[in-house]
Amino acid sequence: MNLRRSAREALRTQRERLKRLNQTAPPEPFSKWYKEDRKRHPDIPAASFDSQLCIICLEIITGKDSVRALSCRHIYHTACFDKWFKGYHDFCPVCHGRVVPEAESVTV
Ligand SMILES: [Zn+2]
Ligand SMILES: [Zn+2]
């Protein structure tokens, strides 16, 4: 087995994964997400938006924090989520929903 080659492969895979992540859940300020998500879900009581906990670092997400909002509506600090994602976790830490579409569908 060629170790150096597989390290390169891993790096490329990692870059592809991050690219897909940025397409699926681009980083945005929490305040922006909050405003848009309220528009998208006018039926959800405002109170449920007020405090969002980042389950990775267990800190409350506030105004200018950069977040990634997954399609399952779970949000995390961008830095926290990226650490999680780089550990080859392709799923949401809370609901285990897939973060990005299947890797197999990507043509390199
Ligand atoms: Zn966090
Ligand atoms: Zn989720």
UniProtKB/TrEMBL annotation:
RING-type domain residues: 54-96
Q: Which InterPro entries match?
A: E3_ligase_sorting_rcpt, Znf_RING, Znf_RING/FYVE/PHD
The record's listing under SMART domains reads: RING (SM00184)
One Pfam family of this protein, by short name? zf-RING_2
The terms under GO molecular function for this entry are:
zinc ion binding
Q: Where does this protein reside within or beyond the cell? A: Membrane
CDD domains from the xrefs?
RING-H2
Please tell me whether the keyword Magnesium is annotated for this protein.
no
Instruction: Report keywords, A-Z.
Output: Membrane, Metal-binding, Transmembrane, Transmembrane helix, Zinc, Zinc-finger
Report the Gene3D superfamilies cross-referenced here. Answer: Zinc/RING finger domain, C3HC4 (zinc finger)
SUPFAM superfamilies per the record?
RING/U-box (SSF57850)
Bilayer topology term: Single-pass membrane protein
**Signal peptide segment:** none
Q: GO CC annotation: what is one?
A: membrane
Asked if the record carries the keyword Membrane, the reply is: yes
What is the protein name given in its UniProt record?
Answer: RING-type domain-containing protein
Task: Record the organism.
Answer: Lojkania enalia
The opening ranks of the lineage are: Eukaryota, Fungi, Dikarya, Ascomycota, Pezizomycotina
